[in-house]
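User: I'm putting together notes for a lab meeting next week and I want to include a structural view of one of the chains we've been expressing. I don't have a solved structure, so I'd like a prediction I can at least talk through. The sequence is below, exactly as it appears in our construct file.
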Amino acid sequence: FLVALLLIAANLRPSITGVGPLLATIQEDLGLSAAAAGWLASLPILMFAGFAPLAGLARRHGAERMLLVGLLAIVAGILLRSEGHAIELFAGTAILATGIACANVLLPVVIKQRYPQRVPGITTAYATIMGAFAALASGIAVPVANLMPGGWRASLASWALPAAIALALWLPHARHAPRKAPAVAPGPARATQSPWRTPVAWQITGFMGLQSTIFYVAISWFPAILTEHGFSPVAAGWLLTVFQVAALLAGLAVPPLMRRFHDQRALAVSTSALYGLGVLGILVAPAGAGLWMVLLGCGGGPSLILALSFIGLRAHSPRSVTSLSLMVQSLGYLIAALGPVAFGLLHDHTGGWAVGMLGLIAVAILQALCGLGAGRTGVAATSGR
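Assistant: Thanks for the context. Below is the predicted structure for the 385-residue chain, given as structure tokens.
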């Protein structure tokens, strides 16, 4: 079950991170403006936010079956967007992102249900697998496009194969899963306070959304920034891979640190600071992009794992984690969706990247402030009473 679950995680980012290194080529081939390219980069994140509530159907049909539906949407969307026209590109992106939106919400729920005592460790495992395949997609996007006859279309389509494999391996678990969520154990009725009414839930949402904003701006626009400073498209793609490899390696340190320090506020502030330093380095000394990408990764990987872990750690039960995960991921990704679009618009308006980069540093500071609240041990984003 865990292996199949991790294979789902492996397919939640490659179809997105493989677009950034090809974005300039797609933009030129289809005649898209920078703003339209920004919308293409933001569309998956908007779908994450808008269609995350579909995961609520898991209460009726079971989380395993809804994860299967999500995988079907991912495969179908990847194939559709690879047709090569602008309409299919945007429509396919919307469909695959809808599938990812369901899985984004349901994976923390399934982890809380199946592994309640191992939330940080299992979360790190799935985030690491997710990050590894995301990094691979960034690195091989341009080489695959250069090698295969279909160019960027073939490069994007290639990720349908691992998604189909995950679909096949998950099918037995979906078929034999209970149709409804497990019943609550007998005992006194417990009313659950909505996470929308708790400050901690909003702080976790802010932390999730702001760290995602920096990540999605980086994978969407940093290759273009680096090519303007003399890096080849292939080199820029591999630097994006360095960012993501550093993120997944740094993320491995999060569970032992969480066990050692108990309170996560220092971790949340430190990772936010590394994010901001990486952005500042790209702004003032882009020639040292390798170092700055490592710093970005050391901030980004742990930030994601902290954000996902907060969902399980701050919810008091498997049932309440569904509500918290839905809030954090829908609103968090809505915040993040504004990033690539705003970044592209700022570039069109100012003719450069400096204002957008300064904005990202401000985002990192706000992330640290949210982390001070989200990282406090002993507070709950939902409560039973």
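A couple of points you could mention at the meeting. The beta strands are 192-193, 383-384. Residues 181-191 have pLDDT under 50 and may be disordered.

User: Perfect, that's what I needed.
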